Amino acid sequence: MPSTFRFLLGILLFFFFWAETLHAFSVTSPTTRRTYWTTTRLFAVTPNQIKFLRKEAAQRLARKSLSQVFLPDQEDGMMMTSSSSSSFPAIWEALQQHELVQIRGISRDNIRHVYVTAQQMVLELNYFMSTKTRTQVELIETSGHSALLYAPADPPRIILRSSYKEGQWTKKPKKPRDHRGQIIQVEDL
């Protein structure tokens, strides 16, 4: 029963998590039995920004400067996402200091559950961090039993470029039309 619930929770998160805006829905964590209500996201990372963050993580990993948090072993093999866990404050501190953090040791018993577990961990981290700051955590990628998380600091140290400009796309005014829907040609006199 719990594995079926996790699978269904994963499907639900897959459809709603990456949307630009989330409509009000509740997610109940199987480990903490808490219900989280999510309405809208404060920011969304675009695919180009995700590419940039992956490159940044690869460069930091090559320089051995990528911050990594190792999750403790679980005796029963359950998913490691309990907000009462001692690892959540460590993850929060690492995200505040470095903005880009790799979490190691997610769902060690089954690699198929890593993505769902990482998404659930992001939801619980957002709930955990919402009491302290308005910063949102984003899941950038999962690889093996690890996940890459991003949360912008205040002020941000990693500058994410965007092609969005305020008022860039404005609606073109419609030409005047007659009662049949034909465009009225204005004649110069």
TrEMBL record:
Q: Which residues form the signal peptide?
A: 1-24
Which keywords accompany this UniProt record?
A: Signal
Q: Does the keyword Signal apply?
A: yes
Official protein name in the record:
Uncharacterized protein
Task: Please report the organism this UniProt entry assigns to the protein.
Answer: Fistulifera solaris (Oleaginous diatom)
